[in-house]
Amino acid sequence: MVTAVFTVAGSVSAHSTHSGGLQAKANNVKLAPFDIIHTKITTKGNIATFHIAVSGKAGEITPTPIGKLAGSDVFSYVWPLTLNSHAVGFEKDAGILALAVTSHPDFDDTPEYDENGDGNKNNDGNVWHSHWVVLAPNEKCGPNALGVVDIPKGEKPKLPKTWPGLPLLIDSPNYKPEFNGHDLNVKVRFDNIDALKMANFDGVAAGLRINASAHSPLLCVKNVFDVASGDLSLPGKTNH
User: Fold this and answer.
1) Alpha helices of 9-154 — where are they, by DSSP H?
2) With a threshold of 0.85, does the pTM exceed it?
3) How many CB atoms are closer than 10 A to CB 208?
4) Cα distance between residue 92 and residue 134, in whole Å
5) For residues 23 and 95, what is the distance between their CA atoms, to the nearest angstrom?
6) pLDDT tens per residue across span 210-232
7) Which residues are within 8 A (CB) of 175 and not within 5 positions of it... i.e. 6 or more apart?
8) Strand, helix or coil at 208?
9) Residue 208: beta bridge partners?
10) 5-26: b (≥16 Cβ within 10 Å) or e
11) Using CA atoms, how far apart are residues 6 and 127, in angstroms rounded to an integer?
């Protein structure tokens, strides 16, 4: 539950400084830190920069912890892509590939990294961090809802090297999100960036939830705060 109230002051001036990519309607959601006003993807060499700007302070709100995994919330900034899932290490055509920057204080899914620098790698899920996820429509998540694709028991699909061990099509690479006022940027290195240059994208701010029974589907998109295009049509083009 979000208990604070956030204003949208300064959103017009912030919006005017962004060019290219997708310009989005400002002040159309209640929570300014999730009110997307601009998103784009650019490349330089083999480095891609994923960008989202909001009318408030990006990353200011994180979920309220409930003390357990089942029923816990995940807040996220997401770039859904037309890039094929195999480009980052999953099976080919596994679903909708997306880069996500997430915060979730009730669990840690980056076991190889110590984001808060306290020497414990298992207590920093609340710190904003990056994932690749594969999404697909899942009616068990709700009408017309998306969920992160589950890995059925006994199946062993192709997975990225930094898969965190959850029964989901999710990857936990060490891409460090950079928050600066209204802006969020993530730099991602690709071995072969050509496919991304041809990809379309969108920008989404959303809340996800772990299933209350912690069973399939494990992780559902429960609350879409804002969509840059308005209709998730992925009209953005890399480097435009």
Assistant:
1) 11-16
2) yes
3) 25
4) 11
5) 26
6) 998 877 899 999 999 999 999 99
7) 99, 130, 186, 187, 188
8) strand
9) 74, 221
10) ebebeebeebbeebeebbbbeb
11) 20
